[in-house]
């Protein structure tokens, strides 16, 4: 068996069911019925492709780990995934399917950073156009800094827990960029293509 560490990276387009308390504010930002329908169709097609690629992975009961953005390192990872999967999240249903096939679920993120980002995003969505330009710019810089800290944490978590010869599957939102922080011996593959980060 190869001692190479591998990471299979799937970009994630979050649906409203993935966004929890932010879902209502995000839905209002896409107001027209036609826009909502187009978005739902595009996201549905994306997840169809992702599901086919995940199902094609040769997952076994040994040597596979699954990492999920937004999933904190805690004592309740499986319950969080189960709740979101039951609530209709296609992303978390895929995580469950990988677990059912033998992959080990890994807490992936810092709970503190997730709370910090959630509070900031909620404020940004609630204030919207009412926010002063200088404050909005400062908050965008703060959000970008939190994202970098999250990416470093995710990468460090993978670096520390993915053992020699193992394969990790990472579901990661489009705004993230963990690759620069991964250990040099981790080979990253992109079954449905590499996401292009928009600035």
Word description of this protein:
By secondary structure, this protein is an alpha/beta fold. The chain has one domain. The protein contains six helices and five strands, in the order βααβααβααββ. Helix 2 packs parallel to helix 4 (90-100), helix 3 packs across helix 4 (90-100) and helix 5 runs antiparallel to helix 6. The termini are far apart. The relative contact order is 0.23.
Low-confidence stretches: none
Q: Largest sheet at a glance?
A: 5 strands, parallel
Mean pLDDT: 88
Inertia-based shape = globular
Helix content bin: 40-55%
Give the H and E element order. EHHEHHEHHEE
Give the count of structural domains.
Answer: 1
Our count of helices gives 6
Task: Return the structural class.
Answer: alpha/beta
Instruction: Tell me how many strands there are.
Output: 5
Task: State the assembly state of the protein chains.
Answer: single chain
Strand order of the largest sheet: 3-2-4-1-5
Rounded to the nearest angstrom, the distance between the terminal CA atoms is 40 Å
What fraction strand? 5-15%
Roughly how many Å is the radius of gyration?
17 Å
